[in-house]
Design brief:
405 residues, two-stranded antiparallel ribbon, binds zinc ion, metalloprotease, Peptidase_M4_domain, metal-binding
């Protein structure tokens, strides 16, 4: 069964409600957030079937053209003490990369519209805050800056996919990106429902989420997954779906926060949803991709349940309460594999492991029910000279994932 991925997962809201350690008004907010997301599921399921049908038979574009040696390394060689021969080779490679990329780059069809939901629980499009091309909003009109952040976040996510993966929006055909800000009241969540991204203003427990590039990147990547390998949102394929959303979401952040000085795999902190918790909660983020299971530990919200290794895989039922077989939980395992692969390859994640992961999802070799083993095999197959690093990364989280006796 398909499901909306709201960035604050059902199981977490349920934990807060069941633990009963939070104030009554916080618990009430969690209940109302949960009820809203549940209501939207039905619409999402219907929409996802339509997309799956429409996508059948569409050829996937190949990954963007990128050398495995990141340009910044060639640039460093040019600046450094290397011999003239080496410098000349780097100069030529850089020139070639630039030419090739410019020649291959798709036309930019970015088309954003940011709407004001005006604190209603519905999506009438009667109040456009920012159409494509702007202008951005004056602080007086939108003091929260949510509208501007949504618009900018969409642009960065779109540009990231276009620039580095030669992908024209989520469907690779210029799908317009619609966003609704100020949704509902005390709605501490954000989600992509297959045709729009929706943000609440935050609640007593959760901060607003428009300023988190990884959250926007995460949610929009569910659209990319849907239009490529369409991994089923349950059990291992669902955990891979969730992991891919984190993988591409975190790369949007590592690149997009400061594109002039992007973060390397070694520099990045690999935290999803930093700043998601209001003050007073003992948590650094929603998830820690490098060290799954360590993002939070607090009486109100419980402890981060993500495993970091296959031996700790969490077996859960395919229900809402069971997080559809642990999709937001077991994603810790492939998340860590991606971080390890990125660090072993070095440089910027989207020029190394990110390219490999993208080739895997657009290869046509994953069906909707792919498990960890199959996904790992396909990434190893497409990792070229980095095959050993990628295989080692998977082995460190339990590859080849033998069934537990
Ligand atoms: Zn998700």
């Amino acid at each position: 069964m398909a499901s909306i991925c709201s960035i604050i997962p059902h199981y977490l809201l349920k934990t807060i409600i069941d633990k009963g350690e939070a104030d009554d008004d916080i618990v009430a907010e969690c209940r109302s957030t949960l009820a809203q997301v549940n209501q939207l599921q039905t619409a999402r399921i219907e929409h996802s079937h339509q997309i799956a049908l429409a996508s059948q038979g569409l050829a996937q574009e190949s990954a963007g053209v990128q050398g495995f040696i990141p340009p910044h390394i060639h640039q460093a060689i040019l600046r450094g003490p290397a011999g003239e021969e080496e410098r000349e080779a780097s100069r030529r490679t850089l020139e070639h990369d630039t030419k090739f990329r410019t020649a291959r780059r798709r036309e930019r069809h970015l088309s954003r519209t940011v709407y004001d939901a005006q604190h209603r629980w519905s999506f009438t499009r009667d109040k456009i805050l920012i159409p494509e091309g702007g202008p951005l909003l004056d602080k007086k009109i939108d003091p929260s800056t949510d509208g501007n952040e949504c618009y900018i976040g969409f642009g960065k996510t779109y540009d990231f996919y276009l620039e580095y993966f030669n992908r024209d929006s989520l469907d690779n055909q210029g799908l317009p990106l619609d966003g609704f800000v100020h949704y509902g009241q005390n709605f501490g969540n954000a989600f992509w429902d297959g045709e729009k991204m929706v943000f609440g203003d935050g609640s007593r427990l959760f901060n607003g989420l428009t300023d988190e590039l990884d959250v926007i990147g995460h949610e929009l990547t569910h659209g990319v997954v849907q239009h490529t390998c369409n991994l089923k949102y349950e059990f291992q394929s669902g955990a891979l779906n969730e992991s891919l959303a984190d993988v591409f979401g975190i790369m949007v952040k590592q690149w997009g926060e400061n594109p002039d000085k992007p973060q390397t795999a070694a520099e990045a902190n690999w935290l999803i949803g930093e700043g998601i918790w209001r003050q007073g909660i003992n948590g650094r983020a929603l998830r820690d991709m490098e060290n799954p299971g360590t993002a939070f530990d607090d009486p109100i919200i419980g402890k981060d349940p993500q495993p970091a290794h296959w031996k700790d895989f969490v077996v859960l039922p395919n229900t809402k309460e069971g997080d559809w077989g642990g999709v937001h939980i077991n994603s810790g395992i492939p998340n860590r594999a991606f971080v390890l692969a990125s660090k072993k390859i070095g440089g910027l994640a989207w020029l190394g492991a990110g390219q490999i992961w993208y080739k895997a999802i657009s290869s046509g070799e994953l069906n909707g029910e792919a498990k960890f083993k199959k996904f790992a095999d396909v990434t190893i197959k497409y990792s070229g000279e980095h095959a050993k690093d990628v295989q080692k990364a998977w082995e460190e989280v339990g590859y080849p994932f033998p069934e537990r006796g």
